């Protein structure tokens, strides 16, 4: 009988160990699931805030950001301009384009970012000019 008791105790220990292991796995999955759900909620909230900000900036401006792949703020940062001045944009563009020329050891990637930033800012200037023209056409009441 003693060997049967030993086998019974070992079997119980294995069942208890398996039970605890299963509980640990379930708890781990729950923790990871909660963290994932929280991250998703934060991501959705961030996307909603960005969409609201784009909505305030105007539909055409948001469309231009989507087409160029750069937001207005990114383009301004790349070309280091604070206000939309065609002269300042062109001056900074020319300087950064020359500095990043591959023949002088620059980066083609950075040079292409400079080009895209200038295109995005020029598009924004065009949108603003169009909006100004539309406001002038509106009858004043």
From TrEMBL:
Keyword Ribonucleoprotein on entry: no
A Gene Ontology cellular-component term: PAM complex, Tim23 associated import motor
Localization terms from the record: Mitochondrion inner membrane
Keywords noted in UniProt: Membrane, Mitochondrion, Mitochondrion inner membrane, Protein transport, Translocation, Transport
Topology class, membrane: Peripheral membrane protein
Pfam family, one: Pam16
Main location, first listed in the record: mitochondrion
InterPro entries per UniProt: J_dom_sf (IPR036869), Tim16 (IPR005341)
Keyword set includes Zinc: no
Swiss-Prot/TrEMBL GO biological process terms: protein import into mitochondrial matrix
Function: Regulates ATP-dependent protein translocation into the mitochondrial matrix. Inhibits DNAJC19 stimulation of HSPA9/Mortalin ATPase activity.
Family of this protein: Belongs to the TIM16/PAM16 family.
Protein name according to UniProt: Mitochondria-associated granulocyte macrophage CSF-signaling molecule
Originating species: Puma concolor (Mountain lion)
């Amino acid at each position: 009988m003693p060997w049967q008791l030993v086998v019974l105790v070992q079997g119980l220990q294995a069942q208890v160990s398996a039970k605890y292991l299963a509980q640990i796995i379930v708890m781990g999955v729950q923790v990871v699931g909660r963290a994932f759900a929280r991250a998703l909620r934060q991501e959705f909230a961030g996307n909603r805030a960005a969409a609201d900000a784009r909505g305030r900036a105007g539909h055409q401006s948001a469309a231009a950001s989507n087409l160029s792949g750069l937001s207005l703020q990114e383009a301004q940062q790349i070309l280091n301009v604070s206000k939309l001045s065609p002269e300042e944009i062109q001056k900074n563009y020319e300087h950064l384009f020359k500095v990043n020329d591959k023949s002088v050891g620059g980066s083609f990637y950075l040079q292409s970012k400079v080009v895209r930033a200038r295109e995005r800012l020029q598009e924004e200037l065009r949108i603003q000019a169009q909006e100004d023209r539309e406001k002038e056409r509106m009858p004043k009441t």
